Amino acid sequence: MRRKTSLVLLALAVFCAALAPLLRWYAFPRLAKIPANEYQTMVLEAKNATLLDYGTMTARTVPRVTIVQTLKGDVAASEKIERTAGRDVVVWDGLSYIQGPDGKMVSKVPERYIFDAHTQEPVHAPGETVDGDPVRREGIEFKWPFLTEKRDYQYFDAQTRTSNPIHYRGTRDFRGVKVYYFEQTIPWTKVSLPKTMPVAGITPETVARTGTTRWYTTVRRFWVEPLTGAPVYGEEIHKEELRGGTLLGGRAKVTAFAGHVKMREDYTEHTVALVKHNRTLVLLMTSTVPWSCLVLGALLLALALWLEARDRRPAGPPGARTDEREPVTA
Q1: What pLDDT score was predicted for residue 299?
Q2: N or C: which terminus of the chain has fewer CB atoms within 10 Å of its end residue's CB?
Q3: Burial label, 67 (beta-carbon count in 10 A; 0-12, 13-18, 19+)
Q4: How far is CA 182 from CA 116, 138, 224, 249, 268, in A?
Q5: To which H or E segment does residue 327 belong?
Q6: Hey, is 295 helix, strand or coil?
Q7: How confident is the model at residue 330 (pLDDT cuts 50, 70, 90)?
Q8: What is the 3-state secondary structure (H, E, C) of 160-185?
């Protein structure tokens, strides 16, 4: 009976030992993915910012500029692309809506971001756009991959429509969460005017005819939880200028917007709580369950070997010989 039990325990030990790497290296990469129906809203603020008054074409200091970023998954579009791409795809329709202290629109820039649900790598398909212009992204945007590494990544900048390195600057603690800090600097670059302007009758075409151009620079910072690849906090030191042309009345340049953009406190708290929850789920599949399987397998193996050794032990009192014969007497 002990022999059968030890064989069962040995089989269970082998199963647990095989299950551990299977969960980590096979199941996790296939099960961990961004849902296609994701919906997120993030509010950022720049306090005491500089903003252009298009009525007088002069820059002024305002108490607050608010940026509302929305990401909405298009399930039907992702399913359509999946049929030809042969992999799980997510389609996000994003909108960056900027408003001044009076609540009026300063600019709004829509974009469509198409990426692999597991790796967050871009998937190039019709509809990949920023402000209606076709783009071909390289690298990541909005989210880092699961199990983010301590290295630089290519990060897509929607203003310049280019991908540039975003540099790993070290590991930090952010409100009790271990995060990787990344930073990217975009130097002064000539960029397109938003297709939706804040003043009726003014379009990018009419501004272009005056010879005035728009320039932009930013320092972009993210604090990223490495297991989920989700930023728990982000901010930008953002500057925009209009340069040259008759629109500025002989001036060389005027500030269109300048401010230190930060996540609003209530959204920061919500994001940290959400990332902590999702981190626990990822940790279960990448560490807790695989290591538990290995430990359980080792215990089962030890128990199986102990039962096998006990089954082979000779019967009778210690030191007794089981092959002794009874003495023959006459």
Answers
A1: 86
A2: C
A3: buried
A4: 22, 17, 8, 40, 17
A5: none
A6: helix
A7: very low
A8: CCEEEEEEEEEEEEECCEEEEEEEEE
